[in-house]
Amino acid sequence: MQLNPTHDVTRKSWLASANKPGCDFPIQNLPFAVFRRAGSNEAFRGGVAIGDQIVDLGALSRTTLLDGLAAQATSACAQPALNDFFAMGPAAWRALRHDLFALLESTPKSSATDVLRDCLVPLAAAEFTVPARIGDYTDFYTSIHHALNVGRLFRPEDPLTPNFQWVPTAYHGRVSSIGVSGQKVRRPMGQSMSPGEAAPVYGACARLDYEIELGLFIGQGNAQGEQIAVDDAEAHVFGICMLNDWSARDIQFWEMAPLGPFLGKNFATTISPWIVTMEALEPYRQEWHRAADEPQPLAYLESKHVRTDGALDIQLEVWLETAQHRARGDHAERLSRTSFKHQYWAVAQMVAHHTVGGCNLQPGDLLGTGTISGPTDIEAGAIIELARAGRTPLKLINGEERSFLADGDAVIFKGWCEKPGHARIGFGENRGEVHPALNAQ
Amino acid sequence: MQLNPTHDVTRKSWLASANKPGCDFPIQNLPFAVFRRAGSNEAFRGGVAIGDQIVDLGALSRTTLLDGLAAQATSACAQPALNDFFAMGPAAWRALRHDLFALLESTPKSSATDVLRDCLVPLAAAEFTVPARIGDYTDFYTSIHHALNVGRLFRPEDPLTPNFQWVPTAYHGRVSSIGVSGQKVRRPMGQSMSPGEAAPVYGACARLDYEIELGLFIGQGNAQGEQIAVDDAEAHVFGICMLNDWSARDIQFWEMAPLGPFLGKNFATTISPWIVTMEALEPYRQEWHRAADEPQPLAYLESKHVRTDGALDIQLEVWLETAQHRARGDHAERLSRTSFKHQYWAVAQMVAHHTVGGCNLQPGDLLGTGTISGPTDIEAGAIIELARAGRTPLKLINGEERSFLADGDAVIFKGWCEKPGHARIGFGENRGEVHPALNAQ
């Protein structure tokens, strides 16, 4: 791999907050979002996080700090959705990110620094929106640990479907109900069928769950009827956010045979505002494993590049903040911690599989990875796994119990990459709050 | 029901082609599409079919023939997508349709007639596009005859899933690959697993199928977290087109447990250009049946209005035109004929169910009804039913056989309503052509 200056941990920014230990947004990260000043009537526009500030790309596009491809990319980012920027492709993404890196790096104070400083908006003063017009949202199911954890609860004799180790399974999800961190999620009403009953009942979901996932934003797409080869696939991914695939388990399990989840999932999906670029994640690539005694990928999913460094060590945590936590001023409690490196199928394989039949991806499409669970109990990515479908309720430190989510619960995801000799690459936070059902008592 | 002048079969148009027997587009129909002159660089814009002509709503919006709500509606239709018009709601839809009816009706020759005549474009000279920016596409599964026909082939002991008679089952489909009549559909590549084999194989789909469905375009939507009550639901539907849910059965059946169809469906969906309004279909409403010994709908799906006239007698035919038909100048052959009146769940129930958990519908969303099969063998809506999964291949009149679709096949849907004392309300034609797989021999 060529030396990439934006990966060099020794580089620092003239913005002091970007150099603090534990900061999610050092100069080596530079993730993208769409924002405006909270409570304002400003137009939403693109921004890049640095320390405790946002570089306002709308403001930057009205300066002369950048030229060439980076300037064109900045103009594309001055809109309320990043689709046009995504469509420009990796050369443009890289040009803008590298030029921002250069402008933000410690240098003798220059007039450029002053101009850029005028383009900064404090992170704490911003509100965010979904960063692209999402044409289609696809949700994969690519953690074998999640599949086994859930499968063992309901089909202990046969927990894994026969296709799991051959197919990066996925289904189409709902675009209209995708919201950004802070989303208020109303507990859905719906049909469910209790074991042994003769008829389903209508009522508020009694088994509300989260699923911790990552979301991949597609950059350049493919023409209908064409394929994206597995070795070209990652160049079609702009970057990664965190994603909460809220799930109403009672509604889902009753409805899903034979066509899959529908109302059990489509009431809300929450994504984090910041999209971390694939380039920023490069230092955290790892070998992708497939044990010799397991099925090996079919040729269209096989790739030396994937084998060598197709896995990504993105660390993830789920935190629960209950109404009681808030009332007493207590901290939220961590429920689980895992890493994306355990995923059974890699990012490139998801993209190649999605297009193998000619389905056309478009800039701004969103691909969920599916729940991310690791090999141990504490690494489970959904409460149905942690509390074993309610058989072993979680006991919180403050004495509360949870089999599933309660009204007033806030679910908070945190994500980051970190290792010695490398800068921390943070994803920020993804938060969603459970509100009571409509018409419920 | 109030007397609606646009349903009066005695009314005729000054445009002679609209009054011919068998015409799909008499003055009582007035369906909407988005079109331009074929081969031109004109902007796409809305149009209304009348006889063998299209009223160009872009041109009409630049005249002074209409005023008030109808004029506003026409302006909304002058765009390359009808979303803004859909969002205006039933009063606007009705105002425009009724004013067009008045302008097109036989009257002493007037200056208005001359102005309108200048807004006509011959149907034969037009090309069409998908008539709305579709935010989300949902495909239902609401024919019990289709579910039983397919279920009996693969699970003869248990052909119907337990939820079918309780839940208007649905899944989210792919928006990006939806095309309009005339779409060229490349046979998809993908994974499939043959019975008794130890591993799947990669190759061109060997079991390519169509499904005849209707497509419902959503008018006004609902806010996230809110519901549309079953008795309000039809007011949220602008109108209906025909829809071909192309299906790669071998790919679909291998991938679909547990999350439903994905690559088996997402390579292409073909819709007819003309959207017939719910108002034009009113005379073809019928009683909706649910036998006393069957499960009755839960309260949120129960409606006196649905019971009284929730079914729609829309007649549908599937025709197959093979390469040999074309080479020899032979007519296409009809494979099946059925009616939407047999559907197990009604339009209003689909919309109410879709929103019961708070999922937000938006103007321009598309809902497929699922395959429409009737109670007898000839009424089957997919070739997998007609040829019993290849066990009894179809023998065509010209000597060809089909278990599934062959390259070069064109699948043509026709749809219409017709009964004594009422005008024929036609849907036109929906055509799609099968092209060879990529990289196939």
Structure description:
The structure is a homodimer of 441-residue chains. Chain A has 441 residues and is α+β, with helices and mostly antiparallel strands. Chain A folds into 2 domains: 5-129, Fumarylacetoacetase, N-terminal domain (SH3 type barrels), CATH 2.30.30; 137-435, Fumarylacetoacetate hydrolase, domain 2, CATH 3.90.850.10. Chain A is 20% helix and 26% strand. Chain A contains 12 helices and 26 strands. In chain A, a hairpin with a 7-residue loop joins strand 1 (32-37) and strand 2 (45-50). In chain A, helix 2 packs across helix 4. The longest helix of chain A has 15 residues, at 90-104. At the A-B interface, strand 7, strand 10 and helix 7 of A face strand 7, strand 10 and helix 7 of B.
